Amino acid sequence: MPLNPPVDEVHILWISEGMSCDGDTVSLTAATQPSLEDVVLGLVPGIPKVHLVNKVLAFETGEAYLTPFRRAAAGELAPFVLVIEGSIPNERINGDGHWTSLGNDPATGQPMTLNAWIDQLAPRAWAVMAAGTCATYGGIHAMAGNPTGCMGLADYLGWDFRSQAGLPIVNVPGCPIEPDNFMEALVWILQFAAGRAPMIPLDAKLRPTWLFGKTVHEGCDRAGYYEQGDFAVDYNSPRCQVKVGCWGPVVNCNVPKRGWMHGIGGCPNVGGICIGCTMPGFPDKFMPFMDQPPGAAVSSKLLTGYGRLVRTLRGFTNRTMDQEPRWHHNGPELTSGYDPYFSPGQDGRKELPR
Amino acid sequence: MTLDVTPQRKLVQMAWDPVTRIIGNLGIYTKIDFDNREVVECKSTSSLFRGYSVFMRGKDPRDAGFITSRICGICGDNHTTCSVYAQNMAYGIKMPPLAEWIYNLGEAAEYMFDHAIFQDNLVFVDFCEKMVKETNPSLLARAESTLAPHAAIHGRRTIADIMRALNPFTGEVYREALEMSRLTREMFCLMEGRHVHPSTLYPGGTGTVATPQVFTDYLSRLLRFVDFTKKIVPLNDDLFDFFYDAMPGYEKVGDRRVLLGCWGAFQNPDVVDYRYETMAEWGRAMYVTPGIVVDGKLVTTSLVDINLGIRILLGSSYYDDWQDQEMFVTKDPLGNPIDRRHPWNQTTIPRPQKRELEGGNYSWVMSPRWYDKRTGDHLALDTGGGPLARLWVTALAGMVDTPFVRATGKSVVIHLPRSLSSGEVDLEWKIPARANTLERDRARAYFMAYAAAMALYFVDQALQRVHAGDVKVFQEFKVPDEAIGCGFHEAVRGVLSHHLVIRDGKIANYHPYPPTPWNASPRDSYGTPGPYEDAVQGMPLFEENGRDQFKGIDIMRTVRSFDPCLPCGVHMYLGDGRVLERRHAPMFGAGGHDEP
């Protein structure tokens, strides 16, 4: 792991021209921990000064907007973090055409493909991040039957890719990214750049471990219903949704625990089946989304006997716990068990010990 | 009498690619006559193809709402909602009333969020102090000395103070709008689970747990947004009125023949049953009225008429025609013939190729048009960015009558209750003289208030149900082996339709038509330019910069006024200013001739 000199100023070159809906950029504007303006205005301590270049939030347009990208490609702008949003199409299968592009190639006057930009920028990037499931693993546009042959960034650059700072691609999946998940990963990279954080911990799929190390189910507030074998049979129910399509038990994601934004919303915790949108196997391996996952049929069946028994027993205990103690009353006698040893008087109470 | 010889026109190619502060890949290619300060030609291109209608074939139709949400990263939920509407028709579902109120509340929050962030954080950068200083220094000087008429309401003394508040990241209105965009997204998540791809919407209803808490959590946030709209609408009025006053002729910027379409939004649960046969009736019961306005006249408010008239034309896009492909639907359930160029019968066949801006194909966007059977024209309807068409149609139709929003036949009155900083306020949006850049933007501010006011009504209706013990939000259904369906909705930036054909229980054909193909379409097979092209072509330029420093601000304002969203696009690129040596004398037919 190379030792990097601390960086005090960094550009974030964000390209959302993958096969994407720009939903990850939009999601980023919902982040609050920290917010985009906190980062851009330099309010977060311990990170370099940040220049964000992103199409949706840019002041400039056209060539003026492209200037930092062109300079970075020519080696005149460093260091920069390259963020790719959207899946990477296969531009080798479409003749003279293009599937997606950003601006024009000055040499030909034709659209300059995303792939050409990645080829020029990735080798010079201080760090490379993939935002959202399209960029990380291909996502929705890479679905079976797709005409564009698209894939994730690591499929394109190679899973062993290393950036100028010696980092692998940092994958933050999610369709779209959960806003604060991405921000946390970005802030870690920026703290690392400032020399104030170690190398970001990533799993084999290049995801930050603290964000994607647990399953949806492990953080779901409906998991208690599961344990008791108490399952929703349609979407009217607040119970566990594994029988109506929820893949939560086998999906790496923290959303039910974190909420969607500011702790609000989410997926199975608020009645939305987990369709596995953070996973490399998304979407094909989770479709049809509204059917019971095959694994859930087995586990929910096994649980049914045990779960019912537990639920029954807990029901007894719950009813007991649901009653106030019998000494809460306004009767003439105190029945709390109190021993009034300190109280003088003629009504049978003892005097205070001396 | 002296012969008035029109000066020869020297045209300069100018392009902006990518156009920023929008969603998706958009390029705008123009030819400009700088001597006469006029845009002579405009072409709008999108360089992104993703292929939804291709890869959805053969999939389980229930997956369509989850998949089509991914078309759009800012209004994906509009797609899910529209898909659910289309599936409800195909499966024969009437959703529980509470589910309808939850959809309406979620979609209202989406309009509030999206209009707030797009207008105040993306569009307004074109009107901010930093930008105006670069493009129109003398206008900024005048703004410094012009008092804002509604200063007492919004707190900015002069127009220049407003412009300063719009500066990116440092301006107070800019930052407040970002906050509001989050607050309204929280409201959205309360109803639809996640923004921007919802988790809790299903054909047949929703999984949102209808506790009193989700509605009171929504309402408490809504009241803060109501307070915000009371200030932001007058601020918009002050800013745009100043542009008209300070730059006479600015009304011609982005001006276009009034050809507006609105497909309706917010179902009325008492009326909607999702049957095609009754579609015209339940369409008219929507809380934003569907309809088409041609030259200021309301042509129809029937969703059936709207549906039958949709035509998808090629012309300048990178696709092969489907003339020899299978027809999926020959008659609608009412027996009306369905055209081969209708989305039900479309087969998408992508054909990637070189971009040819001169006389060839130059966009991944096709050209949706509406066939006007009265004249035989294929009308290039636009959406006015969404709000302009919604308000115009709703106002003319005069059908919406609720405690907070009322259509009068020539205006829409929006009643806002007491909130933190003021008492009750009535805002009235009046049908403007033109459909131009500033009116598209102004309507957006008013529609934020419209959505907030309707949400007050929806939350009340929903809570009444919950208080009465009705918490049913989902209706069970079976997917038929063979069926067709169509859904009509308003995406934030305008008309949205989904057309679905099911065979053997699988998707045989699925074609979503979002607003941007309507607005951003290239020249069609009849040579008719798309609305961006049409609005920019022939427009005057007010930017003070000459050719060398030209930013194209008036063109950018015009394109952005349509709220481009091209994952379903235009790129503007400022080219190197190559001078075309083509000159012509366009006016005097007898004496005019092209010179080499």
Features:
heterodimer; A: 354 residues; alpha/beta; five-stranded parallel beta sheet; two-stranded antiparallel sheet; 10% strand; elongated; B: 596 residues; alpha+beta; three-stranded antiparallel beta sheet; disordered N terminus
Low-pLDDT segments, ≥5 res of chain B:
1-5, 569-596
Q: How can the largest sheet of chain A be summarized?
A: 5 strands, parallel
Quick one: which chains have the greatest interface? A-B, 80 and 89 residues
Number of helices of chain A: 11
Strand proportion of chain B, as a percent range, falls in 15-25%
Beta-strand residue fraction of chain A: 5-15%
Strand order of the largest sheet of chain B: 1-2-3
Which percent range fits the helix content of chain B? 25-40%
Gap from first CA to last CA of chain B: 29 Å
Mean pLDDT of chain A: 93
Question: Strand count, sense and closure of the main sheet of chain B?
Answer: 3 strands, antiparallel
Distance linking N and C termini of chain A: 76 Å
Structure description:
Chain A has eleven helices and seven strands. Chain A has 354 residues and is an alpha/beta fold. In chain A, a hairpin with a 6-residue loop joins strand 4 (101-104) and strand 5. Chain A is elongated, with a radius of gyration of 28 Å. The model of chain A has no long low-confidence stretch (mean pLDDT 93). With 596 residues, chain B is of the alpha+beta class. Chain B is 35% helix and 16% strand. In chain B, the strands form seven sheets. Chain B has a three-stranded antiparallel sheet with strand order 1-2-3. In chain B, strand 14 and strand 15 (411-416) form a beta hairpin. In chain B, helix 4 (97-122) packs antiparallel against helix 9 and helix 13 (387-397) crosses helix 14. The two termini of chain B are 29 Å apart. Chains A and B meet through helix 1, helix 2, helix 3 and strand 4 of A and helix 4, helix 9, strand 4 and strand 5 of B.
